[in-house]
Amino acid sequence: MEEVVNCSWNTRYYYPVVSNLGAHSLTLAALGIRTSAEARFGKAMHFRDAKGNREIDLIVERVDGKILAIEVKLSEVITEHDCRHLNWLEGQLGEELIDKVVIYSGRHAYRQNGVALIPLALLGA
Hints:
Blueprint: E1 5-9, E2 14-18, H1 20-40, E3 42-48, E4 55-62, E5 67-73, H2 84-93, E6 97-104, E7 110-112, E8 115-119
Parallel strand pairs: 5-6, 6-8
Antiparallel strand pairs: 1-2, 3-4, 4-5, 7-8
C-alpha cells in the first residue's frame, strides 16, 4: 500500500506530513515521552535548526543541561539515514548528549551504531 503524502504549511517551513498513521505514532510517542520526561527529569521539546535542514522529533533536557535526543520513525527497519540528524547533534554537543534514541515500529530493542532502537510498543510497558 502506497503512503499518501500531504503537504502542510508551517509558519516558517514548507514540509511534507506523512500519512495520518505516522503523525499519530509521533503524537503518541511524544505524549508519553514528554509526560514522563517533564515529570521526572526536566523539559522536552522539538528541535529544528535555523535553516530548517535538520530536525529532531524530541529533545529531552535534564535539569543539569544534559540532552537526550529522540527520533520517532514509523518503520520496522532503521537505517543510518534515519539517524543522520541524531549523529549530527552528537557532533555538535559532544558529551552534553547522553544518548541517541530512535522509537520505531519494530519488535526488538537493541543498539545500532551507537543509537538505541526501541520499539514503540515498549513505551506502554
